[in-house]
Amino acid sequence: MRRRVVITGLGVMSPGGIGANEFWKLLGDGRSATRRISLFDPTPFRSQIAAEIDFIPAEHGLDDPDAARLDRATQLALAAVREATDGGSTFDPYRTGVTIGTAVGATMGLERVYRAVSAEGQDWLVDHRLAPGHLYEYFVPSSIATEVACRVGARGPVTVVSTGCTSGIDAVAHAAELILDGTADVMIAGATDAPISPITTACFDAIRATTPRNDDPEHASRPFDRTRNGFVLGEGAAIFILEEYHLARARGADIMAEIAGYGAHCNAFHMTGLRPHGREMAAAITAALDRARVGPHEIDYISAHGSGTKQNDLHETNAVKRVFGARAHDVPMSSIKSMIGHSLGAIGSLEIAACVLAIGDNVIPPTANLHEPDPECDLDYVPVTAREWPTDTVLTIGSGFGGFQSAMVLSGPGRL
After folding, report:
1. What local confidence, expressed as pLDDT, does residue 277 receive?
2. What confidence tens digit (pLDDT) does each residue in 326-379 have?
3. Superfamily of domain 5-250
4. Is 265 annotated in the active site?
5. What share of the chain is helix, strand, coil (3-state, %, to 5)?
6. What's the half-sphere exposure (Cβ side, CA atoms, 13 Å) at 188?
7. Most Cβ neighbours (<10 Å): which of 125, 170, 207, 258?
8. H helices of 293-346, where?
9. Can you list the pairs that 126-131 forms with residues at least 24 positions away whose Cβ atoms lie under 8 Å?
10. pLDDT value at residue 87
11. Which residue out of 60, 174, 265, 305 is catalytically annotated?
């Protein structure tokens, strides 16, 4: 009997949409959650906007000691786990594992403590006595997965995947592989990142990857638009319950989608640069389609990486054309980063969540702020307004600094 992997639970912490329902409503309305940064004073920076979450830990089962100890990325992950598991887990702990993706781990916690022990960066020799006892948890990203495992009682394989901006896809794919090979029956999988901090902002300012459109935050993220000039930083988490299909069906689980195929390639070219031809992304897409045993003609919707940088959007457009040929112009494709920003390692899982919800509702979220199409980006990006559309089989794509290219195919429960 061939093992298959299905999604039976979903939790989302997103800018402008806490919880899966609010997240989906935000996307369906085509609203932007981008605003001036409030988590710190952004005045000295080139890019001063981000997509932040109005997150109150106590409203998501986190008490004061948790809020004081845990980095914001871990808090977002635990809040998403709480929604995905509906507050509890009844799975066999020894057949349940955890895989969490993150690009930058506990960035906010590390930076906050460094400022404290170094007198705001003035002292080269830091005073370790000013550091909290849990500083080590900020230093190792594996602590995020450990906290999730402790929260749900998972005693199976527990891992962290950190592949930059494809972490959210790669973590879910790794978890699915563990189920397919029989290592686990259930995986709590997804990704989280809370990178909105001075150090992250400075890093992206240095390479001019983020948009300086500070005077119009809501319309600053413009994937595939002729006037695009960089991405908007975001934060968030999306967590899924993955189960082996036959076991999920036997217990009467509500099956939302199947993880049908996955592919990944690296361009081995440049840490931040992309070749416009998109061959490596095309190879990842082809591998995912082959693994899912579907052809390009069967894909109903493509969830784009669509970061809003000049090179990424062209690279991705050409990769889709390379795989889909003439049909590339007929397949709807959109970027939710236009509304919730780019949450680095978390965004891939948030885009998977959007795909699952699109399958359930047969609605495609739009690419907001796409008013002036780029002649070189000439596909159907579902501009401005959501579209009712049959979405039985969907493709989601990720691209990350370092040359990472990942793709995943999800199909609706009707195909099982």
Report:
1. 84
2. 999 999 999 999 999 999 999 999 999 999 999 999 999 999 999 999 999 999
3. Thiolase/Chalcone synthase (3.40.47.10)
4. no
5. 40, 20, 40
6. 37
7. 170
8. 310-324, 337-340
9. none
10. 67
11. 305
266: exposed, middle or buried (Cβ count in 10 Å: 0-12, 13-18, 19+): middle
| CA–CA–CA angle 125, 129, 135 (5° rounding) | 95
Inter-axis angle of helices 347-361 and 20-29, nearest 10? 80
SS3 162: coil
pLDDT at 88 exceeding the cut of 70: no
CA distance 33 to 13: 13
Element (H, E) at 289: helix 279-292
Q: Is 226 left (phi over 0), alpha (psi -120 to 50) or beta?
A: alpha
Please say whether the beta carbons of 202 and 186 come within 8 A: no
- Does position 58 have pLDDT exceeding 70, yes or no? yes
List own/partner pairs for 361-365 with CB under 8 A and 24 or more apart: 361/24, 362/388, 362/389, 362/390, 362/391, 363/28, 363/387, 363/388, 363/389, 363/391, 364/301, 364/332, 364/334, 364/388, 364/389, 364/391, 365/27, 365/28, 365/30, 365/334, 365/336, 365/339
Active-site position among 60, 165, 265, 315: 165
Same fold? 5-250, 261-407: yes
Task: Return left, alpha or beta for 30; rule: phi > 0 is left, psi -120 to 50 is alpha, else beta.
Answer: left
Which pLDDT score, from 0 to 100, does residue 328 have?
Answer: 97
Given 60, 342, 355, 377, the catalytic residue:
342
To the query of whether residue 203 is one of the catalytic residues in this protein, the response is: no
Superfamily of domain 261-407: Thiolase/Chalcone synthase (3.40.47.10)
- Tell me how far apart the alpha carbons of residues 78 and 55 are, in angstroms, rounded to a whole number: 12
pLDDT tens digit string along 144-179?
999 999 999 999 999 999 999 999 999 999 999 999
SS3 for 414?
helix
Per-domain residue ranges of the chain: 5-250, 261-407
Is 305 part of the annotated catalytic residue set?
yes
Rg (CA), the chain: 20
